[in-house]
## 1
Amino acid sequence: MSRYNVSFAAAVLFVAVHVRAAGVNDCRTLKRHGQTREAAACFERLTRAPDSLSRAEGYFGLGHYDVANDEFRMALKEQPKSAEVRYEWGLLYLNHYQPGDAAKLFEEALELDPNYARAYLELARIAGLSYDKKALDLAQEALNHDPKLYEAHELLAYLALEDSDEERAKAEAQKALAISNEALDGMAVLASIDWLGGKTQSEWMDRILKINPVYGEAYATGAHFFTINRRYELAVEYGRKALELAPDLWQVRSDLGLNLMRLGRTEEARKELQDCFEAHWRDAQTTNALKFLDTLGQYQTFQTGTTELMLNKSEASLLRPYIEPELEKAVATYERKYKMKLPGKVRLEVYPNHDDFVVRTLGLPGQGGLLGVTFGTVVAMDSPSARPPGDFNWASTMWHELSHVYILTATNHLVPRWFTEGLSVHEEGVRDAAWGDRMTPEIVSALKNKKLLPVADLDRGFVRPQYPTQVLVSYFEAGKVCDYIAQKWGDDAILGMVHSYAGRKTTAEAIQDNLHESIDEFNRDFQAWLDQQTADTVRHFDDWKRSIANAKKAASIEEQIQQQTAIRDQYRTYVGPNSPYESLAELYASKGDKAEALKELEQYRNLGGTYVKALKDLARLEQETGSVKEAEHTLTELNYIYPEDEEAHRMFGRLLLDSGDATQAVREFSAVLALKPSDVAESHYDLAKALDAAHRTNEAKDQVLLALEAAPGFKPAQQLLLKLSQ
Amino acid sequence: MKVLCLLFALASVLPGANYYVTIAGLGGSPDYDTQFAKWASELEHELKANGPEAQVITLSGNAATRQKVQETLANLAAEVKPGDAFALFLIGHGSYDGTDYKFNLPGPDISASELAAMLNRIPARRQLVVNMTSCSGGSLAALAKKDRIVIAATKSGTEKNATVFARYWIDALKDPSADTDKNGTVSALEAYLYAQRKTAAYFESEKLLATEHSIISDNGSANGVRDPKPENGAGILAAAFPVIRPESESAKSASPEKQRLLAKKEDLEAKIDRLKYQKAAMPEDEYKQQLTALLLELARTQAEIDR
């Protein structure tokens, strides 16, 4: 190419870029003002532009993502060093539910132009999608490079409201409006604050509609905040309003489908999601939700007067006899305690496939390691079979979620996240002292490093954690706050706070009204109370870590016992993996000291240890030493942790039968059969014996026939058959 | 399993002596040496429950050399009769280089094909080989043969971690629940299924990735299966091979009256098996009625035998 040609080409490109920029901005302005038809015509014109980037913008504006993508690719070939092409292409990906690809392009744009403020802004938006705290820093970075970038203030307002910081959200939104009086998203945040506060009309929405009469995104913003505040009915209502104005907001429609699914309105959900799919909006959320809805045929629902229990057919016969009575017990307990009745039945859905459960709960903040989720009066949770044995306590999780059902209902979903979570953790511990949140090493570390949040800021620990384990620490802290209130002021004070939240009081007001002290006094006293409980462990934490690291296999059993005892005493509540209680029990057992082994394992159980083998060993030891009631207690705990253990059910059934509790023995032997045991004959025979003891002769006879059908020569079963046939 | 029951009924009356050889190989560390020797000793103890006629031979520790193994199997090749049952149990570590499996012994190892050649010289028509070592799946192709049951603790030669299958195989021989048809005998199939289940449960309860997946071949196939069943033609021979048979109701020494009752019992058991075959084609009530009648009669007959 000649020098002349190069200059000419550069000039053409310069003109094209400026014409394009003007063109696409015109189109976007039309769109921003709700002039949909004119905007479409404008984008249409761009598709006929001479340069690829303009054509790409045109197709993007029209929603023709594939063609736009091809044009962007071509544009990048034409302008390989262009940060702008990468930025605009990134917007396409971000709009097309591919934030990972978008982020790469924004980062490339920043490599080429480190001052590209909008690239920082979009990276902030992407970080915000996963509630990453980096979103705040990136948005601020965008403003550092362009203080007039009002969209960055809009995003900061949005993020602040996600953190329940209304004042900061308002301030940021006002900053956006000070720069542009058409800051629609800033106004949407302000309108959302009004809606969250109970106003059905907002002057901000009126202002938005004057600028853009079809700005459904504003209602969608409201729907988002209702969703993260667990007010799903309102989220659905605002999602529908958004779609009335702008039916092609596919992400909003998909979110609506998800919220409908959460509320158990599966057919409505299916329709919305199907519409998205047919419109080629096939993001992971939509396709996974549709696939999930297709699996609902594998489930069976059981009704009682107050409950609906949905179980997978493959495990219904095993789990129902345990979950249903526990569910009814929880309902009765909370009815009494919170002095209220729910508007309808509680629905508990139990998923044996963790992925199904995750799809059911997709989109919630802080969902890592999630075990159960409450949507109004619907609770979804993992089945014990969805997790490795000993990983979680299904009953504890169920009580936790049921507490949410009551508190969310009682407060009309106006309760702050920290309080409902804290109360749920507290209720777990009330139901069984071995349940609730344990003081894990992560929590001890947070205590040691003074990382607990003041109560007024505790919500932030759940929504936008500042360090990896902060959600876990916040659960613990919130639980302890509620323990403290219950211990010092009693359950009525808790109930009073619930009512205060229902009356739209802040945490400071709720504390003042019910505990009669300021939030600062409360914080101070609570910290002192918590320190008193935890100081010893915190003080020895470094010693404990050193002891663990330096622990060697000592020469003799006695030395090993000494070593493990020291480790145990440095951190007595530690019952996590390789706890000293297990080691000590094994060491004592190896030298034949059953009494000491038993003592260690009982402490382990009482502190909430969940290792299945340790609990089975304990039950055996208790049985061997004649502590039948204790063995029954251990096996009951084991059923809450790992109801899939055939051997444990068999052991429990025999204990119960021996101690004359035939009814419960029937439940245990039925569980053995539900687990499809290898020893079918023995299992039917055990059940037959229990049924016989429970005077259910005909059922006993059926079971003994099944035993003998499998093993006709099984003498004890033959004898029972003769007895039952007399 | 209905087919299996009938075949077992035939096998259970076959005459002949039983030979059991257990070899515990090289541990490579004191812990494993102790563990393997302990398992071998426990297995020997359980096998002796088969009565004084059972020949139980155990080679363990430094006694389990290649030469000693060769001598032992060569001696048995001369002693065992075609009507006898022969079982070989291998405990320890194995290795697999992609072609050959080797059983690790003090001194030179022994390969699967060498073992197969030695076993082929033993005239017993009913043979059981339970290779409970790491990589044991790699030995199956060489050892598999018509009328020989081969069980391996791992599905291939590439599962190289030390195995726990042996622990549960031994448990199967002492846990009454392994005898799923409650006939007083633990067959190779019952022991296999028990050990397989317990091994899987072990890995699950310990939250460990399962590093061994046992397989069985008893139809001459060089490819073992994990789940023997009539549909895949596996398990029939294993169901008819008793590993533990502590009880025996020998008709030879019984009185004429008892002989009559034993014959009646066998007849009833055969009728029950036939009825179970017809279950799918019968109305449920009718099946239950007939089954109840037969089972009651069998129970009464057994009570008379035991009286």
## 2
Amino acid sequence: MTRSSTASLLLVPATILIVAGVLVPFAYLFRISFNEFRPALFMVEALTLANYTKILTEPYWMMVMANTLSTSLASTLVCMLLAFPIGLMLARSRSRFKSLLVMIIVIPLFIGSAVRASGWVGLLGYGGIADTLAKVIGADGSLGLMFTQFAVIIGTASVVIPYIALSVQAGIEGVPPDLESAAQSLGATPSKAFIQTVLPLAAPSILSGTVLVFILCVNSFATPVLLGGPRFKMMGPAIYDQIAGKSNWPFGAALCFVLVCMTLATLSLAFVARRLFFRRSF
Amino acid sequence: MTTRLSRRQALALLGSAAGTSMLPKSSLAASGKVTVGTWGGAFQDVLTSSVSPILAKDQIEIVFDIAMQGERKTKLLAEKRLRTGSLDIVLLADNDMYEMNLAGVLAPLPADRIPQLEKLFPEFRNSYSVPQISSGLVIIYRSDRVAAAPKSYADLWTSKFAGKLGIADTLFVQNIIVASQVAAAGGPIDYEAGKKKLLELKASGVKIYPGVDQLAQGMKSGEVTTTIMWRARAAQWKDAGIPVDNVGATEGILPVTFEIGIPANAPNLSRSIAFIKSALSPEAQVAFAKQFGYAPTVSDSGISQEMLDKLGFTDQERAHYFKPDIKQIAELTPAWSDWWQTVFLA
């Protein structure tokens, strides 16, 4: 048996698992999304586009999609602003405690997002730390941060920071230090050398991390539920509401596929951006 | 390979076989786990402290399947086609239980095997579920922050309560009914008018909390000073140190029972029955009254008159019970749920 055929055989268990555990249920869910929902009968076999039409035409569902996209974009941006310096510091660090620093970045991932959201409740809730600080500097009454999009953006960004920090670190570490030195020896200032030499070469890795984080934000559940409250709705909690709360599986399934399409569209955009702007690194 | 049994081992095996055969049939059938679909939090705590020890005597252990009522209903519906479901018992509020009975997912009550059903107050009895605890919808307010106590739901629509009224998302059905009572102003009930009335409340800045526990937190912190809630919660919150008082609105009190149902495909009927018997026992009824503020549903609860007066309703209040058409409510609930989410919360 050749080495390549042995490697192919090793892929069989994972392939079976993915087909049986993901693709088959996915296909079933896709079929369900064309069914009808009648409250007394639960789900009725049909072939209708009504669920998709509802999502794409009713203002409420357009708003839910807009909430999901805007919150995810804002969270990713906030995350990038906060995580980039951390990743850069890690990449450039020659400290013997570097491994410890990496561990400190990773440790929050061991804590569930629901637990972390509870921490934000204490911080952003009525009479919480944010309100207390605001009072100290003379604010009148509560800031009203809880159950807002702002709370969800901050909460979500805090969950995903490690992913971007680590991808920035990996990207920058992958660039040979000699290139930056060469740029500087040719007259570039340190910042110009970094921006024009290191950053473009590290960009594909950073972009991958950014896409991963955006996808995590788009699909987030616990944070929007706990920090967004009943009035701020994103796709993840909306799907759960439809399937588990309202028993409306067809509509919930259609929402799932719209969310999948949103995610795939983002991936495609990232792929195109990579091809257009970072072709040299392939 | 052969296995040799000693004389003593053989006698021990025979003895235990004989002993097992002499055990009452019911105890053999009942021992094991009973899966209960219920609310978490304080409700689960009271079940754990009161019903679990009683069932433990029969070697029955409660396995809690925690979810909000919507999720529990979905589970019952989703498992309807299965020969054996995952729940032995489901706990739901009266309107939800009625809806589940209409959906045909509940077993008829084996009344002949539950003698305590005869002790149920007549107004609570039905053929498909066992009312376990009761209360009614009232106005709860912070006695230290609300100068003039509201008397009616209509008072909550005045500017005096703007921005200081909180309601629970989970009680959307009850919130629509209350708004309809206000809109009706004593006349015939019109739920469409109630929805419009509710939108006025939204415009005046009503705060909406995901659930009752978050609302309790809002009342405690003073973010809101007034709410529409079960009277039981007033007693519970007061015990937790929140200075609240409550009043039955002049428009009429919406009574509620929280009920126990047996799914039609429950895995083990004997354990389901054992759970119901334990939940109706004086120990459990007293625990739910003391720890959770709910009034009993049976006449032999053993709860003191003083506590009954505190948690229950006076004759005058009972005379003003507002009892909507439960069938109509069950039919309207799915549409209300959509309206609540896409219009009121949007």
